[in-house]
Design a protein that fits this description.
Layout: H1 2-8, H2 18-28, H3 30-33, H4 41-61, H5 67-97, H6 99-104, H7 113-138, E1 143-145, E2 148-151, E3 154-157, H8 165-182, H9 186-217, H10 226-230, H11 232-262
Antiparallel strand pairs: 1-2, 2-3
Helix pairs in contact: 4-5, 7-9, 8-9, 8-11, 9-11
Amino acid sequence: MLVRFSFQQEHYSHIILVPLVSASLFFLERKRIFSHVETGWGPGLGLLVAGALLSWLGQRHSAALSGNDQLSIAMFPVVVIWVGAFLLCYGARAFRVGLFPVLFLFLMVPIPDFFLDRAVFWLQTGSAEASYVLFQLLGVPVLRTGFIFSLPGVPFEVAKECIGIRSSLVLVIMSLLAGHLFLRSVWTKAVLTLATLPLLIVKNGIRIVTLSLLSIYVDPSFLTGSLHHRGGIVFFLLALVLLAPVLRLLQKWERTERSARQQPPVRLQGA
């Protein structure tokens, strides 16, 4: 069901890759994660029981929900059971060292409609605001009413389909992976992920403005052509280019902090 859902819903195309990425991280970090293993009876059995209880409750009370929410409620206990099995087999120490690839598996859980709708609305609103600001900076005459823009001869709406929810989710996931692989401290990883959020809006604004200007000055079919429907990868790569300097700056800051901590304190000689 989950695999079929990931192929049907474009914003969940990443789901089938999540376990593969998690397994790859376990393989790359296997010596560190599994250097000391033990049986974690208490926390492991506790999560196994909790997962089974959540699964039972979900089956009893999810009949009236949407297909997305039903699958979300079904998958969350599955991942909880997997985490419990890991704790049971390898212990708390291995769990702490391998915390990221373990928790990464929760990205397999579809986002509930309540949170997904609000994320889409936030992206839609932010993209409209960013587009309007860019039009003004470029001196393009535009009349805006909510999500509807009127340019010279080209009226259009910033619809939900225009915000690139799939590329936005993938960009956030890639920022999490980049932080785990290239940064050390928790706060720098958090800063990298938080820096991704405004980039999502900027990326969408640039995409909307670019397509609009091409439709005005080149060909009106750009608003409905292949660049509109399949050109998201171009603007996704642009967002990665914008995110790269942030990652480098955080790496440089970590090196500076590490060097400062390693320097011995200066001793003042007495008179």
